[in-house]
Amino acid sequence: MDDLLADFVAETREMLEASSGEIVAWEADPSDTARLDTIFRFVHTVKGNCGFFDFPQLEKLSHAAEDALSECRSGRREPDRALVSAVLAIIDRIGVMTDSIEAGEECSADGDDDLIAALQPGEITSVVGEPKAAAPHQAEPADGEDDAAPKAARSNGVQRSIRLPTELLDEVMKGVSDMVLARNDLARRLREAGEQPTIDGPFDRLSAILADVRNAITRMRMQRLEHLFGSLPRLVRDLSNELGKQVMVDFEGGEVELDREMVEMVRDPLTHIIRNAIDHGLEGPGERIKADKREIGLLKFAARQSGNRITLTISDDGRGINIERLATKAVAAGIYSQAEVDAMSQRRKHYLIFEPGLSTADEVSSVSGRGVGMDVVRANIERVGGSIDVASKPGEGTSFYLKLPLTLSIIAALTVGSDGQRYAIPRSYVEEIVFGSSDHIDFAEAGDRRLITFRGKRVPCLSLAEILGTQAGDAMDWEASTLVLVRLASDDIFALAVDRVYDHEDVVVKPIAPAIMDTGLYAGTTLLDDGRPMMLLDLPSIAQKHELVNEMRSATRVPEEEPAEQRKAQPIMLFTGLDGRRRAVRLELVRRIDTIAREAIDIEGSRVQAVIDGAIYPLAGLEHGELTADRCRLLRLSDGDSEIVYAVREVLDAAELEGEVIPSDADAMIEGVALIDERPVPVIDGHALFARHSGGQRKAPPLSCRLPADSDWARTILEPLVEAAGYRIAGDGDEESDVAIELAEAPAVAAGPARRIIRLRHEPDAPGDGADSIYRYDREALLNALKQARMGETA
Question: Residue 339: phi, psi to the nearest 5?
Answer without folding.
Answer: -65, -40
